[in-house]
Amino acid sequence: MAIARALAAEPALLLLDEPLSALDARVRTTMRGEIREMQQALGIPTIMVTHDQEEALTMADRVVCMNQGEIVQVDTPINLYQRPRTRFVADFVGVSNFLPPARVGEVMPDRLDELNGLAAEAHEFAFRPEQVLLHENPDGAGTVTKALFLGNLSRITVSIAGHEVVAEVAGAGTLPVGTRVKIGLDPGSGTWVET
Prior knowledge:
- The chain is α+β, with helices and mostly antiparallel strands.
- Helices cover 26% and strands 34% of the residues.
- It has a domain at 95-195: CATH 2.40.50.140.
- The protein is built from six helices and twelve strands.
- Strands 7-11-8-9-10 form a five-stranded antiparallel beta sheet, with no helix packed on it.
- The termini are far apart.
């Protein structure tokens, strides 16, 4: 109702401050689409404040990610998710795995070349759980420590050389706790981020 009143005045700019925060999850999902369609149909530039990453990714053309009042990255939703520049952005927008350069050198040495002169000690390799490929292998370097079935996906935590890596696989593709696995990544996935 408040949005309808604001639109009645035919504003040049629409400001929305957490407009969906008081709604339950199902209604919020529906309203995201409604607001996005309305905003695009009317062509009104809109600034929306939200702490809900899913809202930001689904409703925005550009996202401004802030940390303690400071802008840390301005980008499209896809770039913000796939190519975060800092550990904060990678961790704030979705779930990420992080490996230090030394560990990357052991398991994915070719990815070290991507540092291109950046200070290795100030960077980590970030990658998303859905980019992780798991292969059951008795000689694999990883061991499944947790396996959660979440309906449309399964979240599997693997311990590998003192680091935990979270993987997400479609459906009920859980591997039992204790299973030895080999870990890989989708080609081209992951990015170096500032720590």
